[in-house]
UniProtKB/TrEMBL annotation:
Subcellular location: Cell membrane
Residues of the full protein shown: 299 to 595 of 595
Domain of life: Bacteria
Source organism of this protein record: Tahibacter harae
Protein name (database record): ABC transporter ATP-binding protein/permease
Occurrences of domain ABC transporter (ranges): 54-288
Length: 297
């Protein structure tokens, strides 16, 4: 029995590995399909940015035709203004950012920047115009310098350091044994959530995009770090067209407009004050989050 079970175990292992390899190949093809789906239109011009007014015009979207994710989502962020989107988990908030960056094309309607349909301009020019501070920043297995400079690889050392200073991470970097040359990422120094967000902010500052997207982290940072980061984000959002995907309402009270997304539809819209006065879903969410906030915060 022992003799038999060893090769069987071994076979099981081989089977699992082959299965994993096949899954990886499938994923690779899925990615290739995606890449094809969003290729540049022949002869597409570069996006011409003039203030970066962002319009989602009656946008419908599904990853899988059997399951609509966004339905008739319609909004306009005038140049330099801030719009925040809130809603329950899975409502489709992060999908808005994926569509804007053109990881996927809309299934219906259109997304326009300064009047140009994003499907009709080059992806390079589109992505150059957009800075995303994601929920979870991916760090490359490289120096912290490289990780910041990634925002604009041709930037000078002075510009990289200036961006790190503005993102309040310069002093932390200098405290590391190898300063800007310290290795970070999986195989290097593991940064905290707040430090990673600062790297993302520094990258974005260096990129200096006309359009900003903040996909707020769901995992809470400590209150003090969060307040500081919030102030930094407000600073870089000033005078830029900004889309905030919010998980905590306290961070968006000053937004020019707030959309409440529910199962892919816009359920309510207005300013913080008008939504509170309306006494609907937003007001209920607000009351709930207020009661969750510890008294000390
Ligand atoms: P959260 O607040 O939890 O981050 P969200 O509102 O940002 O949620 P999305 O990430 O936009 O939600 O996802 C909306 C829906 O789309 C979810 O039900 C999710 O399961 C589904 N979804 C997301 N990405 C994909 C994908 N690549 N393929 C299929 N379905 C997806």
């Amino acid at each position: 029995l022992i003799q038999l079970s060893i090769p069987l175990n071994y076979l099981g292992m081989v089977y699992r590995e082959v299965k994993q390899a096949l899954a990886n190949i499938q994923r690779m093809y899925a990615l290739l399909d995606e890449a094809q789906e969003v290729s540049d239109a022949p002869g597409a011009p570069a996006l011409r940015v003039n203030g970066a007014e962002l319009r989602f015009a009656q946008v419908d979207f599904h990853y899988d035709p059997a399951r609509p994710i966004l339905r008739d989502v319609d909004f306009c962020i005038p140049a330099g203004k801030t719009l925040a989107v809130v809603g329950t988990t899975g409502a489709g908030k992060s999908t808005l950012a994926r569509l804007l960056y053109r990881f996927y094309d809309v299934s219906g309607g259109a997304i326009r920047i300064d009047g140009q349909d994003i499907r009709e301009v080059t992806q390079d020019s589109l992505r150059a115009a957009i800075g995303i501070v994601p929920q979870d920043t991916v760090l490359f297995n490289d120096s912290i310098y490289y990780n910041i400079a990634y925002g604009r690889p041709e930037a000078s050392r002075e510009e990289v350091i200036a961006a790190a200073k503005s993102a309040h991470i310069h002093d932390f970097i200098l405290s590391l044994p190898q300063g800007y040359d310290s290795a970070v990422g999986e195989r290097g120094l593991k940064l905290s959530g707040g430090e990673k967000q600062r790297v993302a902010i520094a990258r974005t500052l260096l990129k200096n995009p006309a359009l900003l997207v903040f996909d707020e982290a769901t995992s809470a940072l400590d209150t003090r770090t969060e307040k500081i980061i919030q102030a930094e984000l407000e600073e870089i959002a000033r005078d830029r067209t900004t889309l905030v995907i919010a998980h905590r309402l306290s961070t968006i009270v000053d937004a020019d407009e707030i959309l409440v997304l529910e199962q892919g539809r816009v359920a309510e819209r207005g300013t913080h004050a008008s939504l509170l006065a309306a006494g609907g879903r937003y007001a209920a969410l607000w009351a709930m989050q207020q009661s969750e906030t510890p008294a000390a915060a």
